[in-house]
Amino acid sequence: MGIEKNLPDSSPPGLVGLALETGLEAWAESRGWPAYRGRQIEHWLFERSELAPDAMSDLPANLRNELTSEGFSPRLAIVRKSESRDGTAKILFRTREGAFVESVVIPAGKRTTLCLSSQIGCGVGCGFCASGMRGVRRNLDADEIVEQFLLSRHAAEGMDRRVTNVVMMGMGEPMHNVDNVLAALGTLHDPKRIHFGARRITVSTVGIAQGVERLTGSGRPYTLAFSLHAPNDAIRRRIVPLKAAMTVREIRDAGARYMATTGRKVTFEYVLLKGINDHPEDARELAQLLRGVPGVVNLIPYNPVEGLEFERPTDRAIHGFADLLERRGTRVSLRLRKGADIDAACGQLALKSSQQ
After folding, report:
1. Cβ contacts of residue 94 below 8 Å, gap of 6+?
2. Is 47 a catalytic residue?
3. Is position 102 annotated as part of the catalytic site?
4. b/e burial code for range 83-122 (CB count within 10 A of at least 16 → b)
C-alpha cells in the first residue's frame, strides 16, 4: 500500500510545531516579546507537558490571549485512556482532522515504557497485526510525535510512573516516516528541550533499507529492533508481505553493521504463531541464521486480534522454542503479555478505535 502525503492543514502549527520550526525565543522576539517569554513557553511544553496556551499561568494574559487567538492549539487531543488489570494504559488521540492514533504506557517494575506511533495506520500489512488492516492514512508529523510523547508522559506521571524508555513500536512503520521520526527523536534527545537519553529509545522496523541506513548514520545511539518473525524468507513472506522489506539475511547483516557502527544492541522481534513459525526446526534455523550476531531475539507470543485466524502457541511450545535457541548460543528474551485485555498488546493497536 502506498503512503499518502500529509493532509493539507492551513491552520497554524501547535506550539510544539512552532518550537521545532522557528524556535519560540525567535518567535517571541519577532512579536515584540522578550526572548525569555519564548523560553517560558518551552518550559511549559517540554518540562511540564502543558500544550494549551491558556494554562501557562506565568505568562502575561495578553500573551496567552495572543497565542490562543492565533490558533496555536495542540495538534493531538486525548479522547480516552483505558487501563488494563496489569497496569498498562492505552491512550487514544484524535488529530485535528479527526483521525485516531494510539500510544501505550507499559509499567514493568521500576521501568515505564512509552510505546509511540509513527503513522495513522500502517502500510506494511503484517498478517498478525491490527494496525495495518485498514492501510495507512498518513505519516505523523514530527511535532505530532513529540506531542504524543508529552501527553503520554503526563498520563504516566498521573499513574505515579516516571517514563524510563521509549519504543517506536506503535501504529505504523517508522522507516516509512524516517524524516519525521528522526526529527521527533532529536527533540526528545535535545538537552535544551526534553533531554531524554538516546540509549533509552528503541526504533522498530520490518527492514526498510534506506531508513535503516539513515538511522545507522544518525550519530545517535538508539537501539534498533528488526521485526523478523521468521527464520527464512519463505515463511517471512507469509507474515510480512511487503516486497520492499529486506530479506532475513539482509536484516542479519544490517543488524551486525548497526552494532559495529553505533556500539548499540540490536533486537530481533519474533512473534510466535502456532503452526506457522514455532516449530523446533524453525528455532534451529533461526539460531543458525543469527549465529555470530551479538543481538537478542525477543520472543513475543501472539496476541489475538479480532478477525484474524492466527493462534497463540502453547506455553510448552513457547518455552521449548526459547530453550532450543538458548542451547545454540542465541540470546533470548520472552516478552510478558501486557495490556491484552484492552487491546494494547503487541499487534493489537488501532483496529477497534478506527471502527468507533
Report:
1. 76, 77, 79, 100
2. no
3. yes
4. bbebebbbbbbbbeeeebbbbbbbbeeeebbbbbbbbbbb
Q: Which of the listed CATH numbers 1.10.150.530, 2.70.70.10, 3.30.390.30, 1.10.10.10 matches domain 15-69?
A: 1.10.150.530
d(CA 125, CA 117): 15
Q: Which pLDDT belongs to residue 8? A: 46
**pLDDT tens per residue, range 254-285:** 999 999 999 998 999 999 999 999 999 999 99
- Which ranges in the chain belong to alpha helices (H)? 15-21, 24-30, 35-42, 61-69, 142-158, 178-189, 209-216, 233-239, 248-262, 280-289, 315-327, 351-355
Q: Can you state the percent helix, strand and coil of the chain, rounding each to 5?
A: 40, 20, 45
State the cell numbers at 88: 498498562
* CA proximity to 51, closest of 98, 3, 93, 87: 93
Q: What is the pLDDT of residue 338?
A: 52
CB-CB contact of 80 with 119 (8 Å) = no
Confirm if 136 and 121 have CB atoms less than 8 A apart: yes
Give the CATH number of domain 76-355; options: 3.20.20.60, 3.20.20.70, 3.90.76.10, 1.10.10.10. Answer: 3.20.20.70
Active-site residue, from 42, 50, 102, 147: 102
Question: Are 56 and 50 in contact, with CB atoms under 8 Å apart?
Answer: yes
Segment 172-208, tens digit of pLDDT: 999 999 999 999 999 999 999 999 999 999 999 999 9
Report the relative pairing of strands 223-227 and 266-272 from DSSP bridges: parallel
